[in-house]
């Protein structure tokens, strides 16, 4: 309980939820930061206290780290993944040195014009002779100014380090939330599996009983049970091996062939590198084939056909699905095939997985529909 309470206190300090608390925590930190450094050399440099010019010089010197810090955080944040890549510390260090140099040169010109470098302690005079020169170093020794910028990085170690700690704490909280959500989803999935397993047992039992009267009906129920079992166990992840997807398609086509053998013709051809172990989004190819049967074969009682060709290359797969078009329902069918829920969801998935790296075309003829899909293969 005490550990949980401590974690709660740390979370409130590092991750204040209210904007007002965040602003207040930043103000308190910078007041402590500046105040600490202002009195750090008090025993050996009493002139810092007794000279107004020196107090102002030191105050501005340490206060400049406030804009330096926030500008650096902003610039690093614009990289898209702040502080989360292996080279982020290098980017942070380079940005700190650059911003420090840009803000320090005008500060020393302010000292020289309004206070006078000669009126300040010796360290200001020593460093100032480099900052008061031009922006582009003219002599070899002029490059020493960047050494002083680098030395100032030790003062930014604390605020930048706290930033890293805060981002790490945020990542840990997100990970914990995702793990909790994942556990809850697994529990829901385990409870949901009871019903499918019950259905599988019923289908298997029915297949055995029906086999005495109709072998075809028994095989149909057995294939249906196989498909449910496959969908239950092999389609949980977002991606699936292409071979397993094609295996599921073959089972689905066998089931449809048994169902519509008297009035439909089904052709399926797979060519190319069929032994590949690469993956595709789960059931993405199956969606197009199921769409062809839904809007073609099952939308008419007359003769129909579905022709499927799948060509597999080293880095991509191309699927073409050609199906007959019910002549009596052309307007409704055209609308459903073009903007149906299946294809709409498919397009969203394609945009999510392969933005600008896929090709999807739906071509309508007077008596047929042709769907063309080409997607990259994922290792």
Write the layout of secondary structure elements.
Layout (H helix, E strand, L loop, with lengths): L1 H13 L4 H22 L6 H4 L1 H12 L1 H13 L10 H28 L6 H10 L12 H8 L1 H58 L4 H20 L4 E3 H19 L3 E9 L6 E3 L2 H14 L6 E9 L3 E9 L5 H10 L1 H13 L5 E6 L3 E9 L3
Parallel strand pairs: 2-4
Antiparallel strand pairs: 1-3, 4-5, 5-7, 6-7
Helix pairs in contact: 2-4, 4-6, 5-6, 6-8, 9-10, 10-11, 11-12, 12-14, 13-14
In brief:
The protein is built from 14 helices and seven strands. It has helices spanning about 1-15, 20-40, 45-50, 50-65, 65-75, 90-115, 120-130, 145-150, 155-210, 215-235, 240-260, 285-295, 330-340, 340-355; strands spanning about 240, 265-270, 280, 305-310, 315-325, 360-365, 370-375.
